[in-house]
Amino acid sequence: MGVAHRFLPGQQALSPDDFSGGQEHAVKRLRELGFTVVDVRERRRLEGLRDRVARLEVSHASGGPALHQPITLLWAIGRARRGEERLLPWTETERELRRLIERHGARGERPHPDHPIAGLTRAGLWELPEHPAEGPNAHGDAGPHRWFAEHRPVSGLARDAHDLLRDSGEARLTVIAALLDSSFDGLDPEPLLKETGLYDEGATGDPGDATAGFDPLRYAEQCAAIERLEPRDHGRRVERTWNAPLRSGAARRLALARANGRCRNPRCTGQPDDVTDHGEPLLEVDHVADLALGGRDHPGQMIALCPNCHALKTRGSRREELRRVLLAVAADDHARALAAASTG
User: Fold this and answer.
1) CB within 8 A of 29, min separation 6: which ones?
2) How far apart are CA 337 and CA 344, in angstroms?
3) Phi then psi for 15, rounded to 5 degrees?
């Protein structure tokens, strides 16, 4: 916008100091005009966090990776999402994590939070602010247990990770997907996700997602995270419905953002001009291919419709014909979004 200003008669390029408000003014206006604005700094922070989670060194118990660290991270992500304090006294941390590990440690994990926290501290994901050193060595049980019993530190997620996971639904989706994919194969994490407050669709959403403008790069990255959460064996989908609510929330928001506020039924005769109390368009997201009949919980088979078109697709006498049309539109919209991401 600043560069374009110099092409006006008698004008010159604008500097950053000539703009006010950042996200609330210039960026908001650019998105209203149809531009895609990417926060490169936040994207780099997200990539760094994703890499740290991917590089975690976890011990292996009977049947697969030990769940100490994933349980600890999911607990902390839930706290960050709810806006709770980042740092906690050791007494509270030990009590809450011991209970979670006892309930959800499905591979014989000992209910001692000192070992996973020592490992997360070494990985740069956890912080012991009163102890500048990295804390105890994470190997073995006796060393970390003695160190935490003696020092009883205040601790919590590293500040950069906490702030990103608190503010970004994309970051929560990415990290949750990575943890479930790497550590919970063959297990049902639904009870753990519910207890940590990460099961409902709001767990991966940001306020104003539907009105923030469409970002193809973000769309492609979140689709990739959603796909990592899909069951590897599509035929066992019903047995693994634990991840449907989590993925459904993220996929629903992507379908809404992709629609840019308009009903995607090419035969729509007109949608309401009114909006919700939050300023969002009156659109509903439909799984064009029903989940119960083997459809995917994925933006490629989801579409945003006005309430009238949604009713026609669900209950209209020509709904099967409309279903075929909408399935083609959803697939085309999805392909166009991914193509925009690859060229942008």
Assistant:
1) 1
2) 10
3) -95, 165
Q: What is the residue whose two structure tokens read 């839930």?
A: 78
Q: What is the pTM of this model?
A: 0.66
Instruction: For residue 19, give both structure tokens.
Output: 């703009």
Residue 75's Cβ-side half-sphere holds a number of Cα atoms within 13 Å equal to 25
Q: What distance separates the 2 farthest-apart alpha carbons in the chain?
A: 75
At 136-170, the pLDDT tens digits run: 765 666 778 889 989 999 999 999 999 999 988 87
Q: Going by C-beta distance under 8 Å and a sequence separation of 6 or more, which residues neighbour residue 112?
A: 98, 101, 141, 144, 145
Residue boundaries of the structural domains of the chain: 40-162, 211-266+280-344
> What's the one-letter identity of residue 68?
H
Separation of alpha carbons 109 and 100, rounded Å: 11
SS3 98: helix
Q: Is the dihedral of CA 193, 108, 134, 123 positive or negative?
A: negative
